[in-house]
Design goal:
CATH topology of the largest domain in chain B: MetI-like fold
Radius of gyration of chain B: 24 Å
CATH architecture of the largest domain in chain B: Orthogonal Bundle
Number of domains of chain A: 4
Oligomer: heterodimer
Structural class of chain B: mainly alpha
Number of domains of chain B: 2
Helix content of chain A: 55-70%
CATH architecture of the largest domain in chain A: Orthogonal Bundle
Shape of chain A: elongated
Strand content of chain A: 5-15%
Structural class of chain A: alpha+beta
Shape of chain B: globular
Number of strands of chain B: 0
Strand content of chain B: under 5%
Number of helices of chain B: 12
CATH class of the largest domain in chain A: Mainly Alpha
Radius of gyration of chain A: 35 Å
Chain lengths: 518, 286
C-alpha cells in the first residue's frame, strides 16, 4: 500500500540518491579490495533501506541517523582501542604481514657485476614526457621503457630511426635524442624511473647506463620464511618481525596481536613502569587538587556574593564569570606566556617584589604549581555559580536556629553551609573530578607535559596526565608512535573514567530515570 | 539570618572581591593591552600602552606565515556544521524516545547513556587510524579534511544531547498532539510542525553549547588535521605559540582576543543553562 504523497516521493528520491552514492563507494572499496569497509557499507545500506521502506518500526526512522554516527565514531572506536591495545601497532609495525612481505621482497640490490644497458632518452616537449630506449651492447638487444616495464623492441621498429646513419638510433617517434646537457638537466627525473624486467628492476646507474638490479629477498609461502638471495640467510616471523638465527630483524615489521604484553610492560618494565606510575599518581593528584582548589575559591566567592543587599552584585558576578567564558585553549596559551620564566609577567612581578623568579616551565614542582593556578583561574567561576545555586537551596531556618544557639560565623559555615553544599553538589564535583582527570587541554597546551622525567624510556613528562601521555605515546613527533601501548593506557583510563561516571549516575539518579521509562 | 553586618566587614568583602576580580581579569586585560602595544615582545610591556596601534591585528590578517583567517574560518565552519547536524540528529532521535512505545526503548536509552561513560578524546588513536584507512579509499572524508573532524564531533555529541532533548520533550504535554492526531496528521508532521517548534528553547541552547564545545576542542582536531592551512584555531594558535612565542606576543594576543570574543558573547547568552547543568530548567513555554 503506497500513498503517493509528497513525503513519500521525497523519501524515494532521498533513498535513491543515498543508494547511488553507496554503490559508487562500494565499487571503489571493491576495486581496492577493502572488504572490511565494504562489509560495513553493505550492512549500513541494508539497515537504512529496511528502516525507511518498512512500514513497521517507524521509531527507528528517527533514531537510526544519529545512532549510525554514534556507533561508527564512539562504539567502534571503543572496541578498536581495546583491540589495538593487544597489538604491537606502532612505528615499525604499521603494516599487516602481507604488506610487510611485499615491501621487503620489493627491494632490489645491484649485483657485483650487473647486466648493463646504455640508454637514450627522448623528450616530448609538448607533453613533457620522457621516453627511454635501452641497448645491451653485449648482445645488441633493444628495450623500450613503457608503463614501468622494459619491453623488448625490434631494431627495425618503425618508431626508431637513425637519421644521421652513424649506426645509433637518434629519433623516436620523431622526437630528437636528448643531448648530454639535457640529460643532466633531467637527471633527477631519470633517476626516479624504474622499469621491471623479468623479476629484476632497471635503474639509472650513471649518465650513460641503466643497470639491472636483482631482488634481494624472496618469500617462501610454504615455510613462511623470507630468504636473503645474496647470502641465503633465512628469516622467520617472530614477534612482528622477520628474524634470522642471529636475531637480526628485517624492517618493516608487521602487526600482530601480542596479548597482554603492552599492559605487562607498563607494570613490569622498569624503564616504563617508573615514569608511568608517576604519571598515574600525578593524574589523581591533579584531578583532586583541581576540584579542591576551584571548589574552595568558588564557594568562598559565592558566600561573599550571597548577600542580596550587596552593591554591584550583578556586576561582580559578570566580571567573575569571564574566565569561564574564554575558550580554555586561548586562556591557557595566554597563561603560558605569563608564566614564561625569562620574559613572562609573573616572574617580573616576583622580581619587582625583590625575590628571584621561579622556573615555571623547567622544574616539575613549579610547573605543577603553575598548572594548579591556571586551572584555579579557569575553574573557580563554574564552582562559584554552582555554589550560588546551592546556597539558595539551604533553608534559612537552619541559620536562625543556629543563631539562637549562639553559633559563630565559622561554626555556621562548618556545620550547616559546607555539609549542605557538599551534598547538593557531590555529583557535580565527581563530574568535575572526571573532567579534570582527562583535562588534556590545560596540561598539554601549557607545557606539552614537560619538563621531561629523567631517564624515562617513553615520552613521559613531569606534568603529563594519563590522557596527555596517551597522546604523546601516539603522536609526539620524533619519538615514533606506539599505538599499542597508548591504547593500553587509554583502556585503563576508560575503566577509571567509567567507574567515576557510573558512581555519578548512581548519585544523580540517572539510572532511575532510565527505569522510569518502562 | 544575621541581619547585622558591621561596616568594616562590608568594606572588607568588597576589597576581597575586587582582589579576586583582579585575578580573574588580569590575563584578559593583559593580553588586550599587549594586542594594542606596538612592542611585540613579552618584556617590558606597560599595562596601558602609550601609543596604541592596530598593527598586530593588521599583521594577523595579512601575514603569510600564519593563516589566521583560515584557522578562524575552519573553526567556525566546523563548529557550525557540527552544531547544526548534531542538533538535527539528536532532536530526531529524542522524539520516539519521548513519545512512542517500542521494544528495547529502555535498553536504547540506556545505551545512549552508557556511551557517555567513554570520552571520545580517549579514542584518539582508534579514530586517527579509522580516518587514515577511510582516507585511502575516500580522500574527501579522510585525514586532514573538515568532514573528518565534523563527523568525529557528531559521533561524540549524539548520546548526551539526545538525553537532554528527550528530557525537555517529556515536559511538553501530549494534549497538544492529540488534537493533531484527530485531524489526521502523520507522526512526522506532528514532530515537524508541533514538537520541534515547542523544543526551540532547548534546541537553540544546545546549538550554542555544541558550537562552543566544537570551537574549543583541541586534541581530536590536532590528531585529524596535519597541514597548517587546514588547522582549527585551537590547533593553529598552539602551533603559533610553540613556533615563536616571546617574539610575537602582540600578534598572538590579537589572535587570542579575536578568537575569544565570539565565544564570550555566545557564552553569556546561554550561561544560565550551563549553570543548571542543562537539565534543571525546562518548563513548557508556549
Amino acid at each position: 500500500m503506497f500513498s503517493w504523497n509528497k513525503a513519500f516521493i521525497f523519501k524515494l528520491i532521498f533513498l535513491g540518491l543515498f543508494n547511488a552514492f553507496a554503490v559508487w563507494a562500494a565499487i571503489i572499496l571493491f576495486v581496492q579490495r577493502n572488504y572490511i569497509f565494504l562489509g560495513v557499507l553493505v550492512l549500513g545500506v541494508i539497515v537504512i533501506n529496511y528502516v525507511y521502506l518498512s512500514k513497521k518500526n517507524y521509531h527507528l526512522k528517527y533514531i537510526v541517523p544519529g545512532t549510525i554516527f554514534m556507533v561508527l565514531l564512539v562504539v567502534v572506536p571503543i572496541f578498536y582501542t581495546v583491540y589495538v591495545s593487544f597489538t604491537n601497532y606502532g612505528t615499525g609495525n604499521m603494516l599487516d604481514k602481507q604488506q610487510a612481505i611485499n615491501q621487503i621482497t620489493g627491494r632490489h640490490h645491484r649485483p657485483e657485476d650487473p647486466r648493463e644497458f646504455y640508454f637514450s632518452a627522448f623528450k616530448d616537449e609538448d607533453t613533457d614526457e620522457i621516453f627511454v630506449l635501452f641497448e645491451d651492447r653485449e648482445d645488441g638487444s633493444l628495450f623500450l621503457g613503457e608503463d614501468d616495464q622494459a619491453v623488448p623492441v625490434d631494431p627495425d621498429d618503425p618508431r626508431l630511426e637513425d637519421t644521421t646513419g652513424d649506426g645509433e638510433i637518434d629519433t623516436f617517434e620523431g622526437l630528437e635524442k636528448m643531448e648530454r646537457p639535457d640529460v643532466i638537466q633531467n637527471v633527477s627525473r631519470l633517476e626516479r624511473k624504474e622499469f621491471e624486467y623479468d623479476d629484476s628492476l632497471m635503474r639509472m646507474r650513471d649518465l650513460n647506463r641503466f643497470a639491472l638490479y636483482r631482488p634481494s629477498y624472496e618469500y617462501h609461502e610454504d615455510e613462511d620464511k623470507i630468504v636473503d638471495l645474496r647470502t641465503g640467510e633465512e628469516y622467520f616471523p617472530e614477534e612482528g618481525h622477520f628474524v634470522n638465527a642471529e636475531g637480526e630483524r628485517l624492517d618493516p615489521g608487521f602487526q600482530i596481536t601480542i596479548g597482554f604484553d603492552n599492559y605487562r610492560r607498563l607494570i613490569t618494565d622498569p624503564r616504563i613502569t617508573g615514569p608511568f606510575i608517576r604519571v598515574f599518581i600525578w593524574t589523581f593528584q591533579w584531578a583532586f587538587l583541581s576540584v579542591a582548589t576551584t571548589f574552595a575559591l568558588g564557594l568562598f566567592v559565592a558566600i561573599l556574593l550571597n548577600d542580596k543587599t550587596m552593591r554591584f552584585r550583578k556586576l561582580y558576578r559578570v566580571l567573575l564569570i569571564l574566565p569561564y567564558a574564554v575558550p580554555a585553549f586561548i586562556s591557557v596559551l595566554i597563561w603560558r606566556g605569563m608564566f614564561n620564566p625569562s620574559v613572562g609577567v609573573v616572574n617580573r612581578i616576583i622580581e619587582y617584589m625583590g625575590l628571584s623568579g621561579l622556573p615555571w616551565l623547567q622544574n616539575i614542582f613549579w610547573a605543577r604549581v603553575a598548572l594548579i593556578i591556571i586551572n584555579l583561574w579557569l575553574g573557580f567561576p563554574y564552582m562559584m555559580l554552582l555554589g550560588l545555586g546551592a546556597l539558595q537551596s539551604i533553608p534559612g531556618n537552619l541559620y536562625e536556629a543556629a543563631a539562637i544557639d549562639g553559633a559563630s560565623r565559622w561554626q555556621r559555615f562548618r556545620h550547616i553551609t559546607l555539609p549542605m553544599v557538599l551534598v547538593a553538589l557531590a555529583p557535580l564535583l565527581i563530574a568535575s573530578f572526571a573532567f579534570n582527570f582527562n583535562n588534556f587541554n590545560v596540561i598539554y597546551l601549557f607545557n606539552e607535559g614537560r619538563p621531561a622525567i629523567a631517564g624515562a624510556q617513553t615520552p613521559a613528562g613531569g606534568t603529563d596526565i594519563l590522557i596527555s601521555y596517551t597522546y604523546r605515546l601516539s603522536f609526539e613527533a620524533g619519538r615514533g608512535s606506539d599505538f599499542g601501548m597508548a591504547s593500553a593506557v587509554a583502556v585503563m583510563v576508560f575503566m577509571i573514567t567509567a567507574v567515576l561516571t557510573w558512581i555519578n549516575f548512581k548519585y544523580t539518579g540517572a539510572l532511575e530515570e532510565v527505569k522510569e521509562n518502562e | 539570618m544575621n541581619n547585622y553586618t558591621p561596616t568594616w566587614m562590608r568594606v572588607l568583602k568588597h576589597v576581597i572581591i575586587w582582589m579576586i576580580i583582579i585575578f580573574a581579569l588580569f590575563p584578559i586585560v593583559w593580553s588586550l593591552s599587549a594586542s594594542f602595544n606596538p612592542s611585540n615582545t613579552l618584556v617590558g610591556q606597560p599595562l596601558i600602552p602609550e601609543d596604541a596601534t592596530l598593527d598586530h591585528y593588521i599583521e594577523l590578517f595579512t601575514s603569510d606565515i600564519h593563516p589566521f583567517t583560515s584557522w578562524m574560518i575552519n573553526s567556525v565552519v566546523i563548529s557550525l556544521m557540527t552544531a547544526f547536524f548534531s542538533v538535527s540528529l539528536t532532536t530526531l532521535a529524542a522524539y520516539p524516545f519521548s513519545r512512542f512505545k517500542f521494544r528495547f526503548r529502555r535498553n536504547g536509552l540506556f545505551t545512549f547513556l552508557l556511551v557517555q561513560l567513554f570520552p571520545q578524546m580517549l579514542m584518539m588513536v582508534a579514530i586517527f587510524i579509522i580516518f587514515l584507512l577511510v582516507g585511502r579509499s575516500f580522500p574527501a572524508i579522510g585525514i586532514n579534511t573538515r568532514p573528518a573532524v565534523v563527523i568525529t564531533y557528531l559521533g561524540g555529541a549524539i548520546g548526551v544531547n539526545t538525553w537532554l532533548v528527550k528530557g525537555y520533550m517529556d515536559t511538553i504535554p501530549r494534549s497538544v498532539e492529540d488534537a493533531a492526531y484527530i485531524d489526521g496528521a502523520s507522526h512526522f508532521q506532528i514532530f515537524y510542525k508541533i514538537i520541534v517548534p515547542l523544543c526551540k528553547p532547548i534546541i537553540s541552547v544546545l546549538f550554542v553549547i555544541q558550537f562552543i564545545h566544537s570551537y574549543s576542542e583541541y586534541v581530536l582536531a590536532r590528531v585529524l588535521l596535519n597541514t597548517t592551512e587546514r588547522f582549527t584555531l585551537a590547533v593553529g594558535l598552539h602551533m603559533f605559540v610553540q613556533d615563536q612565542y616571546g617574539a610575537r606576543w602582540g600578534v598572538f594576543s590579537a589572535a587570542a582576543i579575536l578568537g575569544a570574543i565570539p565565544i564570550i558573547v555566545l557564552f553569556m547568552l546561554v550561561q544560565d543553562h550551563i549553570v543548571t547543568g542543562f537539565l534543571g530548567g525546562g518548563g513548557v513555554k508556549g
